[in-house]
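Saturday, quiet lab. Running sequence design on the structure tokens for the scaffold JK sent over.
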């Protein structure tokens, strides 16, 4: 899937952050992943172990926080979490929805040692 470029960008951001703060080691990285982002934790971890080898981020712990999907119905303004991948609004059966949460992929925080 697309975990490789994603992992490369996590490493890139991490190393830049570490350099800015004169870090000697990166210990922890906290990631926020929406349930619909299609990112697989194990795959990120796999690429991470290879890519971070030889950098100060080697051995850093990756923490994954999953964010449930939240949809907003444009017809009745109901906010809800869909079951499976069913988009239909439970209140009015509407299908015009907006994804509020759940497709994001972010770095929440990075912990370093200086
Ligand atoms: Zn609705």
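Result came back. Writing it out in full:
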């Amino acid at each position: 899937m697309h975990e490789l470029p994603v992992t490369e960008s996590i490493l890139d951001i991490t190393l830049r952050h570490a350099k800015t703060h004169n870090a000697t080691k990166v210990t922890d990285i906290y990631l926020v992943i929406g349930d619909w982002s299609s990112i697989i934790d194990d795959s990120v971890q796999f690429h991470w172990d290879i890519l971070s080898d030889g950098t100060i981020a080697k051995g850093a712990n990756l923490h994954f926080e999953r964010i449930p999907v939240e949809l907003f119905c444009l017809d009745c303004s109901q906010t809800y979490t869909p079951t499976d991948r069913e988009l239909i609004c439970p209140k009015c059966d509407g299908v015009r929805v907006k994804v509020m949460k759940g497709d994001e992929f972010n770095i929440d925080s990075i912990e370093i040692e200086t």
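Notes for JK: The mean pLDDT is 93. The pocket of zinc ion is lined by residues 73, 75-76, 78, 89, 91-92, 94 (CB under 6 Å). Ask whether to fix the surface positions before the next round.
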